[in-house]
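Contributing new complexes? Match this layout with magnesium ion.
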Amino acid sequence: MIGKISVPFRIVVIFLYLFLLAPILVVLPLSFSNDSYLTFPPESWGVRWYVAMFQHAGLINAFWLSLGIASVVTALSLAVGIPAAYAIGRHEFRGKEFALSLFTAPLLLPSIVLGLAILLVFVQARLLGTVTGLIIAHLIVTTPYVVRIVITSLSTLPPSVEEAATMLGASPLTVFRRITLPLMAPGIVASAALSFLLSFDEVVISLFITGPRLTTLPVEIFNYVESQTDPMTAAISVVLVTATLVIIMLIERTLGLSRTIGK
Amino acid sequence: MQTLASREDARPIAIPQAEPQPDAAFLRLRGLTKRYESGFIAVDNLDLDLPKGKLLGLLGPSGCGKTTTLRMIAGLASVTDGEILIGGDDVARRAPHKRDIGLVFQSYALFPHMTVAENIAFGLDMRGVSRQEARARVEEALEMVRLPGYGSRKPKEMSGGQQQRVALARALVIRPRILLLDEPLSNLDAKLRDDMRIEIREIQKRLSITTVFVTHDQVEALTMCDVVGVMAGGRLAQLGTPSEIYEKPASLFVAEFVGRANVIDCEIVGRDQARIGDQVYRSDTKGLSGGKAKAAIRPHRISLTPDRDRALVSNATNSARGRIARITYIGDIVQYEVEINGAMLKVEVPTASAGHGFGADDMLLCEWKPQDMLVFGS
Ligand SMILES: Nc1ncnc2c1ncn2[C@@H]1O[C@H](COP(=O)(O)OP(=O)(O)O)[C@@H](O)[C@H]1O
Ligand SMILES: [Mg+2]
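Output block (do not edit by hand):
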């Protein structure tokens, strides 16, 4: 795609990658430590902590909860975000700017502020420590991304293509189903993947809502790290990073990541 | 709604609507007006009649409301006021997908995720045409636009000209009541544009489909269309055949916009008498008999002859003595700028007979017929 890259630029890019990947480069050897405490470099090697991780009931339960919540949150944020993005991106209406701000404001707020606000409301609504509460809170985080990404992918789709379908006799619903939706597919897949990962990774807001009997994976890890300093966290990190990479590679294989994120 | 739906269902796709009388207008615009939310009036009280099977060119400078007019006919822009009658039905408030109109966009607007054949079949699918019949009609449409065998290509694998033809085939395969084209040639290079002009016109004539063609290019309008509507500022400045528009422009705007013209300040001193400087010329003053005015003379309607020392005004021709101020060689023609009575006159002469004897500062005689000197009151 990019024809020639100058040597200085190439060096900058390599350093950037090293900087971004440095934590993984440290964590990977650390996860194969058999020591009882975090020491670098490890004194003994093995898969002890991987085994421990899969036997840790708290972590495994939290994993399934996070997986379920991330799936539901992804589905719901697409269900809310796609129509909202379509309305904002394709129609002129009063209060359009306001609607856009409303949908995307959570992007700008610090998570801690958002978490506190959610906490205050959820106390009243008796949603603290409930799955419903977690899902709603995560939706507040993920939906703005869906709206943003889908609006962007709509803006690269000229309205004349949809109008052409209309002129050929397609009703508005048919136009959406046969033309708009398929052409937005890359944006939808990208925002689905992002919603999933955001929800799955969410810590700050979840910390406000989860309780002793309801803990998501990131919160469980967070709590674990607070009390324990052994290489199991490194093992967990490696598993999570690998899972994330697999998801991204699957998207890349099926759609092409460059196409999903932008043109 | 009830009658509308049943009418649509009952009408067989292949057989055209009940024919109005051959000469009656098939497309009628009555007081068509568009005011945008901003309050801007883009189309102002447009009245227009187009007989069945004719090609109307809407010609005008950018921003004069051509596209808005077309989009109102298509139903893609709402109508602020007025009527759009197609074969007698007022469709002004009908949803666009129920209007049965073919539209070709400047940008082609092909469906990028479908093959060429799927693009063309889309409208047939919407009409519930059987797969088998659709296949045959797609093939036929591809033949018509001279792209047989291209059905399995994706739009992005085709050139601009080919995409344009696919867009045309897609619009025509549904046998629409009216075909609308919005600057369909403006994204093509010059050579291709000439070919497509002829091709579109031939297909339009063969199918005898009532067509509105929007363009800002006067050559397209004059060469392709049965009727030309010149638009300015949301209004129809003139409606007429190409030769009427060119030979008898209704206003100075039309004279200047369609073809080139020398525009010279003059004074009307009597019926068909216009004075430039101290010289009176016979001209077409359109009934005006006094006052300040502007005269329009087309550069190629002026002939140059060597100076015979006298300027005469006869009934047959006007002539004026002048001095050549500048010569510009343009290839097909040579353009002389000649100074007469303090006014500058552009004169265009085909190169073959360019009379190479003329040089800068030569004195000579410009001659033009009275009917080629159009005078418009100001
Ligand atoms: N959505 C809109 N809102 C306000 N003004 C518009 C809109 N669309 C077009 N216009 C204005 O209407 C006028 C006519 O536009 P258009 O019909 O596109 O002209 P043309 O096709 O002749 O170039 C232009 O001055 C344009 O700025
Ligand atoms: Mg236009």
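Reviewers usually confirm one structural detail per submission. For this one: Chain B touches chain A through 27 residues (CB under 8 Å).
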